[in-house]
Amino acid sequence: MRLPQIFYNLHKRLQKMFDKSNEGGEGVTPSIQDIAGRLAEEQQRLRQLEATTVPKERTLLVLGSKCVGKTTAINKFFDREEHATRPTLALEYSFGRRIGIGKSPQVMNVWELGSLDNAEQLLEVPMRTHGLQQLAVFIMLDLSQPQRFWTDLECAFKGLRDTAQQMMQNSTPDLREILEQRSLERVGQQSKEDLGNLEPLPFPVVIVGGKYDVFAGFDPAIKKHTCRCLRSMAHLIGGALLFYSQRMPKLAKVLRDTISHMGFGSPAHPFRSHVADFNEPLCIWFGTDSWSKIGDTGTQSVERIGATFGVEVPQLQLEKQKLPETPDPSKDPGFRESLIDEMRSQKNEELAGIMRDVLLRGKFESVQN
C-alpha cells in the first residue's frame, strides 16, 4: 500500500470515529483524552504498516557521460563538500541511512559508474549484488554536447537491458511477474495505447540532462531535436526525464528530491510540475508522455531514434574522448593519501638509490674492461 493511500485511510478512519461519537446525540462529544488515545492507536497502526510495506534497503546506480556532474550531484545529496572532486575511475560505492516513522532504519546504496567504456562487467556488480527488485537507475547526459551524448545514452541503455535480461531469465517466475507488473504501473494509464511498442526496463530509470544552464542558450532547432530525442528514449524505456544544472537551485532541488524519492520513498512525488516545452527545462514523470504528444514521428525504436537524431544533430565520432588526463595519478591532488604517499616516497628513494648503484657498478665494470 502506498503512503498517500495510507494517510487517506487514516483520515477516513478518524472521520468515522467522530461520526460514531456523535451518534448518541448532539450533546455527546469525545473528550480530549479519547481523541488523543485514538490518534495514538492509529499512529501505531501506521508505523506497523509502514514497517511492513516500506523497503528497508534500496539501491541507486548512477552512470552516463563523463564530467557531467555525477559525483557532484551525489556529494550534494549527502551534503559532502569536496574542494577538488576527484574523477571516478571505475565503480564507486557510498550509502546513506535514514530513520523512518517506525524507527526502523532505511539504507540507500549508491553506485557510481565512472565510464561507459567496456563497462559491461562493472554494470553487473550493483545489479547482481542487490538485485533488481529495489533498484533505480539515473542516466546523466551532457546537454552541453548534443553532438556527442547519443553514444553514451545508447551504450547505457543496451548495457542495462542486456544485464537485466540475463538476470530476469535466471530469476523465479514470481519475481519476474512482480517486476513486469511494476513496469506496467510505471507506464501508467496515459501511455497504455503505446504499451505494445515500448521496451520498458524492469526497474525505474530517470534520464537526467545535465548542464542545462549551457544548453538553455543553444539554437532553438538544436534544443527541439534534442528534447524530442530524449523524450522518445525516456518514453520507450518507460522512464522519467529531468533537466538539471547545479548552478540553478530550482533544478538542483528537483534532482535532490528525486534521488531521495528513489532511495527513501519520500517525497511522494518529486516532480512538482509537468514541463514538455523544449524552451524550458523538461520535467516529465513516469507514464505521462506518449508518442502522440512527442510529435508526428509515430512508434519509435532505439535504432530509429538514434538515426533520426543523427540526421537532425550530426554526431561526432568519438575516437576516445580527449579529456585532459593527469599523466601520473599519484601526483593528482584529488588522490592524496598521506600514509600511502609517504610509503611511495620512501620506495621511490630506495628505487633511485638502487638505480644509482647499478649505474655506478656499470661504469666501474666498463673502466675495468
Key traits:
alpha/beta, Rossmann fold, 7 strands
* Morphology: globular
Give the strand line-up of the largest sheet: 2-3-1-4-5-6-7
Distance between the termini: 90 Å
Contiguous runs where pLDDT drops below 50 for at least 5 residues? 320-324
- Major sheet size, sense and barrel closure: 7 strands, mixed
Strand content: 5-15%
Category from helices, strands and their pairing: alpha/beta
How many domains, as an integer?
A: 3
- CATH H-level homologous superfamily name of the largest domain: P-loop containing nucleotide triphosphate hydrolases
Q: Percentage of helical residues?
A: 40-55%
Keywords: Cell projection, Cilium, Cilium biogenesis/degradation, Cytoplasm, Cytoskeleton, Developmental protein, Dynein, Microtubule, Motor protein
Subcellular location: Cytoplasm, Cytoskeleton, Cilium axoneme; Cytoplasm, Cytoskeleton, Cilium basal body; Cytoplasm, Cytoskeleton, Microtubule organizing center, Centrosome
Main location: cytoplasm
Pfam families: DLIC
